[in-house]
Amino acid sequence: MESPRINIKVIISLFCSYMLLSHYTTALRPALAIKECEFPAIFNFGDSNSDTGGLAASIYPSPPPYGETYFHIPAGRISDGRLIIDFLAKSLGHPFLSAYLDSLGANFSHGANFATGSSTIRLPNRILPAPGGYSPFTLTIQYSQFLQLKNRSQLIRHRGGIFASLMPKEEYFSKALYTFDIGQNDLGEGFFANLTIHQVNGSVPDIISSFSANIKKIYDVGGRSFWIHNTGPIGCLPYILANFPSQKDEAGCAKSHNEVAQHFNHKLKEATVQLRKDLPLAAITYVDVYSVKYSLYKEPKKYGFELPLVGCCGSGGKYNFNGRTLDCGRTVTVNGRQIFAGSCKRPYVKVNWDGIHYTDAAAKIVFDKISTGAFSDPPLPFKQACHRSLD
Ligand SMILES: *[C@@H]1O[C@H](CO)[C@@H](O)[C@H](O)[C@H]1NC(C)=O
Ligand SMILES: *[C@@H]1O[C@H](CO)[C@@H](O)[C@H](O)[C@H]1NC(C)=O
Ligand SMILES: *[C@@H]1O[C@H](CO)[C@@H](O)[C@H](O)[C@H]1NC(C)=O
Ligand SMILES: *[C@@H]1O[C@H](CO)[C@@H](O)[C@H](O)[C@H]1NC(C)=O
């Protein structure tokens, strides 16, 4: 009986000295060091780049082999595994975000995800499940859903009972990080409607102004920290490369499609500068995801990737992509032959999963790079994104 008690004493005293020591080292950090933010919750808005189950719960669950790498079953993500948002949530010590639209087992105690695959910022011309349709849950609808959650979660908390603990605390809404990754489908919709590059490029200012309006509305109901991903190099995705004849850049990507994405990002960055002026209490971080994703195509070997312009799961062809929509996990007819579009052998050496979406392996690298702050404006690490600037 004696020795266990001694052990406990030893452990407690070791623990106390550790606490003192870590307090001491914290105090020794240079005065310049910026404190980490609390971020008790994340509220995410976006498209398939960050959808953790919204489209799957509401309209279209992805079949196997989606999810095969990490979850080993389809898990609401349009990927073989985790998305950037999953790595962001985990790095704050939170569970993966539940989709707002998921009524089965959702837990919103540390935030909610309003993103759905194929969402746009502006109202799309055609809605799913129509062929070539987009998600009905535009950014503006996602904002309305957020308002619903904000109000009704507090009613449920006050009522108590089994659902109360699944809701975020009231103070989380002002302390939360609001994350965004949306806009790719606004461009994609234009391209697939056969608009010219010039016409899609011309639609960018209107798309961005609708984006800014939604950020302001979230600020008006108390949101303060905003983490905004720019849009990726759409011209490097198999679904663009396989569908549109194009001049290629040095990485083999469609040059002018990427230029439209760059113009979108230029306007988005300008919008964040304006938003900082308009919203004096907001910390707004613009994150250059484009550059990180582009580096995976430009220097694939550096990251252990092979043939980055060819998707892992598909029905063959130069880019392993046929037709105009996703065929991963389905049997499709290509040149009169029935083909099951299955997974490749080594998804971990692939950048692209299904012709549109990134693999678990690619998302991990993008997270590793953007979380340092090296691709952010202001250049603060992810965990410091509640601060307005370096001072
Ligand atoms: C909801 O998530 C929180 C945070 O991970 C956890 O503590 C809690 O047990 C979860 N609730 C249920 C019912 O699973
Ligand atoms: C949320 O609650 C506020 C204040 O109680 C109310 O003014 C607002 O209309 C509510 N919004 C929604 C979407 O229910
Ligand atoms: C765009 O052009 C392609 C190829 O000519 C055609 O198959 C497709 O139906 C057109 N799409 C629209 C929306 O007009
Ligand atoms: C898009 O529009 C901007 C501003 O008018 C222009 O500077 C840019 O060259 C255009 N890009 C493309 C690919 O048309």
Automatic annotation (TrEMBL):
Residues 1-27 form the signal peptide. It comes from the Eukaryota. GO terms for molecular function: hydrolase activity, acting on ester bonds. InterPro entries: GDSL, SGNH_hydro_sf, SGNH_plant_lipase-like. Pfam families: Lipase_GDSL. Keywords: Glycoprotein, Hydrolase, Signal. The keyword Transferase does not apply. Belongs to the 'GDSL' lipolytic enzyme family. This is Esterase-like. The gene is LOC110750528.
